[in-house]
Write a structure and sequence with these properties.
The chain has about 160 residues and is α+β, with helices and mostly antiparallel strands. The chain has helices at about 15-35, 40-55, 100-110, 125-135, and strands at about 5, 10-15, 60-65, 70-80, 80-90, 115-125, 140-145, 155-160. Helix 1 crosses helix 2.
Length: about 160
């Protein structure tokens, strides 16, 4: 299944080239989000992407404008839910619909695979991401935990797709 929005497509992707594209987007997005002085090398982010993709049922989905990857998410089935483990768009295209298209794709993927709910964790002070999730109908659960290597508090969000 492909979601198209003004030359933007989102589809499942596989292979090292797609993984490297996702790692590059993640490196640029986290550098911009955290106001870092430089962008981490793709190789520094690739290991985390590959480790997540090694989980049972995990799949990588890339958003493209033409041939250029501009966003991605990694989806993992969890019982009757789909967990978004990563979701990012390249800072160069922030505000142009990439995140919205990815979230619509997540919902379509969940329906197509008979999953009725979505869940994700987002860094609790990432106001930009939280605003996007809330706009798309995701709801904060009140659960906050320090998760992952960043060591920062994260807030859990859910969405019913029924």
């Amino acid at each position: 299944m492909q979601i198209t929005d003004e030359e933007l497509t989102v589809e499942r992707a596989e292979g090292i080239d797609a993984e490297r594209e996702a790692a590059g987007i993640w490196a640029r997005a986290t550098a911009k989000r955290d106001q870092l002085p430089s962008v981490a090398p793709v190789g520094d982010k690739l290991a985390g992407i590959q480790q997540t993709l090694a989980e049972p049922g995990a799949s990588l989905h890339l958003a493209r404008r033409g041939q250029r990857a501009v966003g991605f998410c990694i989806l993992i089935p969890q019982g009757e839910s789909v967990e978004i483990r990563y979701l990012a768009t390249d800072p160069e295209v922030w505000g142009s619909g990439g995140g919205r298209a990815l979230l619509e794709h997540v919902q379509e993927h969940a329906r197509r695979t008979a999953l009725s709910r979505g869940e994700l964790w987002v860094i609790a002070d990432n106001a930009r991401a939280i605003s996007a999730y809330e706009w798309a109908g995701w709801v904060a659960t009140g659960e906050v935990e320090v998760r992952g290597s960043a060591g920062r508090p994260e807030r859990r969000f859910v969405r019913d797709f029924g």
